[in-house]
Amino acid sequence: MKHLALLLVACGGVACGGGRPAPAPDPVPQGVVVETTRELAVGPGNIAMTVARGVRTAPPTDASRMILSLHQFYEPQHPVVEVHGTTMTPFPDPATYAASGAPPLNSVLGIRADERGVIWMLDNAMRGGKLRQLVGWNADANKLEAAIDLTAVTPDNAFLNDLAVDRTHGAIYIADPAGGKNAALIVVDLATGGARRVLEGHASVIPNERDLVIDGTPVEIKQPDGTLFRPHVGINPIALDARDEWLYFGPMHGDKLHRIRTADLRDPTVMLAARVEAYADRPITDGISIDSAGNIYLGDLANNAIGVIGSDRRYRELARGPELSWVDAFSFGPDGNYHVVANQLHRSAFLHAGVDATQPPFRILRFKPLAPGRVGR
Length: 377
What we know:
The chain is mostly beta strands.
């Protein structure tokens, strides 16, 4: 294992990543130790931790399974894999998946595990696929749980990015940043397979014009004509609290985290725009997760850092270091740790002006949170 003794370093109110200043982190008594557990040759996307088959009813142990989506920007051979020590295998098993009758998986980024051992995979079909879908695979029973077609609720420029699984109320909430101005949430009813697109174009889901600058280099996309532009991404961070009462979310390029009651989201008669609450200031971020005490963990992309928004709604930096290069996702594991993906996405050719500047290995890391979490969250 490799350890990173990461000390707290505040932004001090200076612009972190260009544009508007990021919130200055408040000091905390000590940093956290972040540990590298895996070094990968291919860039991961998101991570789902679940309990190993056969021990679901046993007391919490470190007997866990690690499922990764592999990021489409790195053009992986398989969209989803399971990590076994130093090796990876396709997930689900290709022959078993094909026999289930589910449509093939094309390009998966968002992935989550629920408490029933189901791995929920969000297929955005952005590598030449035709079907945007949500697929649930029961990792315990090795069988298909659900395959839900999302075509009817996604525009042509949809980018199904991340999701939050609410088994308490039989719903899944999906972040679609789309083209920015038409960003939206999608609410899926697991009992019926029905889906609704909500809050499209609302201020809580669309990006601001703040550029993301990391290590002095702006994130830029090279267009077919050779010109460069700086993307501004809508709703991306999304997570549920421990009781599935509140959904927290916001645009990736934004400085506010918002929340809304899940009861309101599930009620098609509610005027949702009036129910959204501004919750806290925060930096530009990708993935987030929430522990049992209401602490919200996030990756501070511009500063190669992990931070937390406490129950006091104030942002604090927990750890910083070069190994925390684009913290994309968190998942709480049976071992009591948060497992974290750092995938150098800003160095990928897609986001680095057409030039691959990645410096493998890519990393899976872990750290002990301030309070316990729910496995898979």
